[in-house]
Amino acid sequence: MKFRLIRTLAGLAAAAFAAQAGAQTAAPATDWPQHPVRIVVPFQAGSATDLISRQLGAALATELGQPFVVEARPGAAAAIGSASVARSAPDGYTLLMGGPAAVVTNRFLQKRLAYDPDAFALVSMVAYTPNILLANPQQPFKTLPEMVAYARANPGKLTYASFGTGTTSHMAGEMLKSIAGIDILHVPYKGAGEAIPALLSGQVSMYFDTIMTGLPQVKSGSLLALGMSNSKRSSLAPDIPTIAEQGYAGYDIAPWYGLVAPEGTPEPILEKLNRAVNKVLADPALRGKLAEAGAEPRGGSRAEFAAFIKAEIPRTKQLIDQAGITPQ
User: Fold this and answer.
1) What pLDDT was estimated at residue 316?
2) Which pTM does this prediction carry?
3) pLDDT of 131-187, one tens digit each?
4) Distance of CA 268 to the CA centre of its chain
5) Mean pLDDT for the chain?
6) What are phi and psi of 185, to 5 degrees?
7) Three-state secondary structure of 245-311
8) Which of 26, 33, 101, 192 is the most buried (most CB within 10 A)?
């Protein structure tokens, strides 16, 4: 027992010495970055999050003079990649491209979450991808007001697809049910590859899809666009009205992407990174590349990002409770 105690104390002393030495040799925060920075994407390579991260990373590399390497760590609804970043050293060299699942929704959907969604240092909003409410042209309505009128006259008859339980696609439907006072049935799918064929074949009545995969269906005439899910019209589809402007004030929900860092990351690094993100997002070249991925740049201050998250948490909890979703 005595030997074990001595060994433990010696180990603690060595760790303290190493930490002190590291602090003395580490470059000042204002000199960051001195070597490549890693952006962890908690979804599969090729996903919208991955594409947006790669475009942003390339722009930041040019701006800050070091490579920004994107690493996909998918699994457990973004929890695996998010937990890996939360456990990383708070030195500015490991970042997470967060979103609704990683930062907000998982706290309500997973009982044994391996990280604290509040234990991140917020850097900046990056972009959002508007959702479109799509409908099968064979349905007995052509516009959103006509759909709402039909749903009220036929409660429970209409269905809407989403790209998964608890996703923004699902929550978009719950929000519409609440604001419009209608009863429509949720049918979850794994993504557009399943949901769009189901919509085209008439298995479901509607589908909240991302603009990247949904807009081509509208332009081809295969599906109808009843409205955009965000609060203002998308520059990618300016002719499609928002749901809010069609009589449903306050309706605003869309997948978003924001850069976060491990808790404890030095303030000068966070501020420098925020300024760099906002600078590159103003570049027309990057904005054009984001548009190709169906994304619109957001940006803003760290305080604005924090205010956004603070508002999203109770709003999301209300929608999840309304949907009757219980944590698994």
Assistant:
1) 94
2) 0.83
3) 999 999 999 999 999 999 999 999 999 999 998 888 899 999 999 999 999 999 999
4) 25
5) 90
6) -90, 130
7) HHCCCCCCCCCEEEEEEECCCCHHHHHHHHHHHHHHHCCHHHHHHHHHCCCEECCCCHHHHHHHHHH
8) 101
Q: What is the pLDDT of residues 239-248, one digit of tens each?
A: 999 999 999 9
Sorted by sequence, the CB contacts under 8 Å of residue 24 that are 6+ apart come out as: none
Q: How many CA atoms lie within 13 A of 104 on its CB side?
A: 26
CB 105 within 8 A of CB 276: no
Backbone angles phi, psi at 96, to 5 degrees: -125, 130
CA distances from 153 to 142, 164, 165, 256, 278 (A): 16, 27, 26, 34, 48
Q: Which two tokens stand for residue 294?
A: 């169906």
SS3 46: coil
d(CA 77, CA 211): 21
Q: Are strands 159-162 and 131-135 parallel, antiparallel or unpaired?
A: unpaired
How many whole angstroms separate alpha carbon 170 and alpha carbon 163?
7
